[in-house]
Amino acid sequence: MPTAPSEVDDLVPALVALRRDLHAHPELAFQERRTAGIVAGALRLLGLEVHEGLADTGVVGTLRIGHGTRSVGLRADMDALPMVELGRSAHASRHAGAHHGCGHDGHTAMLLGAARHLARTRSFDGTVHFIFQPAEEGQGGGRRMVEQGLFERFACDAVYALHNWPDLPLGQAQTRPGPIMAAADRFDIVLRGRGGHAAQPQHTPDAILAAGQLVTALNTIVARRIDPNDAAVLSVTRIEGGHSHNVLPAEVTITGTVRSFDPAVQDRIEAALRDTVAGVALASGTTADVSYTRYYPATINSAPEAALALAAAQAVGLDAAVAPRPAFTSEDFSFLLRERPGAYLWLGQGRTDPGPDGERPLHHPCYDFNDDALPLGVRWFCEVAERALAPPSVVVGPA
Ligand SMILES: [Zn+2]
Ligand SMILES: [Zn+2]
Asked: pLDDT value at position 355?
């Protein structure tokens, strides 16, 4: 049976307090020791098997009910962003330079709430692994958990996660089969001349001019080298070089990111970028070094699990729909989805407290998870586990 709203409402006051405590004490990637300690302590109190130290600060709690051999992993991320919070709530960050600007405080609280609820209802047959991962924000904590044997130690037939989503109103949820979040690549290009007097350009290749030409050329790659039916974006985000008005610098650094959904498109963009850099360097007389790193793969939902995630959302009263298109942001739950079937859900967050500029998107310095979403996420996680591990005699579809 779907988890009725009243069944988790009694958990909400404690979850709100926990979420705000986590918000006030944000911890950066692989430093989530206080958070991991709170999570592990709470899971132990529930009587779960608790495993600490996977990927340094990761925690996995295991709840086995009945004799079923099926298993499911539910995942939350615990880390905060390296940024200053400008919010002024009573639970604003007390850690300088760290801010829960992506709402992972809410994810952690919701998954703990689901563990609490499932530990008391015991309404499934099999094993649920509650996976609390470190370092989602660009540091690949999910990858490290997989590399350190997450699925060898904790068998999961499928894995599920959610992200709070300010672009959707509270009470709505979306996911989709196939790509839902983009692959994220980073490039760092160093163009080198020799450096020299600005009045004597004939004596040195001009790395500044080459950088200007290169930025323009890089911005033609997606437009001219990629099939218009394939979605991708390339952004140059940093140029650094030069210190004086009368010196041609010896080197200029250009940094940026590429987002796409298909490894073949990634291959084509990387090759075109390398060709473009080589061509500009040749024409300008500079030399160039290119570093190109594919740090997060695309987040790809498997179709049956995306259907289960949507059905679960509908069953607990969310206004759930198939997402019309993926997002170009990225997510390291992708590493778990490369190993196991599963799905990633966007849980509507709304913008209940718009700032003077009107919007507070994820990673905004005033971002604060909407506590009204807590019971919605708890119910969804519980419903997913109950559907994935429904006792054989119980018909809960679609499976
Ligand atoms: Zn984020
Ligand atoms: Zn996030």
From this structure: 58
Gap from CA of 113 to ligand 2 centroid (Å): 19
- Is 349's pLDDT higher than 70? yes
Q: What is the pLDDT of residue 256?
A: 97
Q: How far is the CA of 398 from the centre of ligand 1 (A)?
A: 31
CA of 126 to the centre of ligand 1 (A): 32
Which ranges constitute the DSSP H helices of 196-256?
Answer: 207-218, 221-225
Phi first, then psi, for residue 188 (nearest 5°) are -130, 120
Residue ranges of alpha helices (H) inside the chain are 5-9, 12-24, 33-45, 104-121, 141-147, 150-153, 207-218, 221-225, 263-284, 303-315, 333-339, 374-388
Read off the pLDDT of residues 132-155 as tens digits, 9 standing for 90 and up: 999 999 999 999 999 999 999 999
**Pick from 279, 296, 313: which residue ends a domain?**
296
Domain match, 239 and 259 both: yes
Q: Which among 140, 32, 147, 111 has a CA at the least distance from the CA of 78?
A: 32
Strand partners, 160: 74, 343
Residue 16 is part of a domain; what is its CATH number? 3.40.630.10
Q: Which ligand is nearest to the CA of 165?
A: 2
pLDDT of 64-94, one tens digit each? 999 999 999 999 999 999 999 999 999 999 9
What phi and psi values does residue 55 have, to the nearest 5 degrees? Answer: 55, 45
279 and 241 in contact (C-beta within 8 Å)? no
* Structural domain harbouring 215: 183-296
Whether pLDDT at 354 is above 90: no
Count of structural domains, the chain: 2
Residue 106 lies in a domain: yes
SS3 content of the chain, % helix, strand, coil (to 5): 35, 25, 40
116 CA to middle of ligand 2, Å?
23
Place 383 in a pLDDT band, splitting at 50, 70 and 90: very high
How many helices and strands in the chain, by DSSP H and E?
Answer: 12, 16
